[in-house]
Amino acid sequence: MTAIAYPIAQNAEAALSRPVGRAARGGEAQALAGAAVRFVTELVGPGFPTREAALDAFPGRLDDERPGRPGVAPEDRYCLLRELVADPTLGAKTTIPLRPTYRDGRRWPTPRATPATVWRISISYWRIDLGAEPEIPEARGDPATQDALRARLERPLRPMKVQKSLDIGLFEVRLPEAPHILMPDE
Q1: Fewer CB within 10 Å of terminal CB in the chain, N or C?
Q2: What stretch of H or E contains 120?
Q3: Where are the domains of the chain?
Q4: Is the pLDDT of residue 173 over 80?
């Protein structure tokens, strides 16, 4: 299976049009960018009234199942098409749970008109953080690191308290005066 190679850029517009490079993993992206990176998903571009109009505006970026349209390679699947409510304030009001009402022998009344929607493209990419320091992974070949790891592995693991016998349940204890009797402890 091929990993998705996400673009590396400072913002979503740059990631869509002119990325610095592409990387599947954070370490690769950090090495290509020369700075700290953060994985983000953002909306980019205008809203389109129909799905077909959005697919026509971004040819080759999205999977288009219409006949005669090219598909997207597995490593290039970093863009998605999303349907959003056109008026965000209206969308927030419709997410409130409604109480059921009983009218005309039916539990729920006729639903209100659906809000207008728009289609926008969202892109997942590695955002370059110029103000942050890049994370430097520990060197695997460093002898000091290897010695510290070897010393930690040679120490035996010690339990915090003695483990109970496996024949005793979680809420059972042995009586001190009669260890052969198990008592429920609640």
Answers
A1: N
A2: strand 117-129
A3: 6-82+120-129
A4: yes
R_g of the chain, CA atoms, integer Å: 29
Kindly report the CA angle at 75 between 132 and 78, in degrees rounded to 5?
Answer: 55
Round to whole Å and give the CA distance between 86 and 116.
5
Say whether pTM exceeds 0.70: no
User: If residue 117 lies in a helix (H) or strand (E), which one and from where to where?
Assistant: strand 117-129
Cα–Cα distance measured from residue 27 to residue 38, given in angstroms and rounded to the nearest whole number: 11
Tell me how far CA of residue 180 lies from CA of 114, 167, 171, 185, 186, in angstroms: 70, 12, 16, 15, 19
Q: Which amino acid is present at 94?
A: T
SS3 23: strand
Tokens standing for residue 151: 């010393």
Taken in order 110, 113, 115, 119, the sign of the CA dihedral is: positive
Instruction: Output the CA torsion sign for 67, 73, 76, 80.
Output: positive
Token pair in block for residue 78: 């970093």
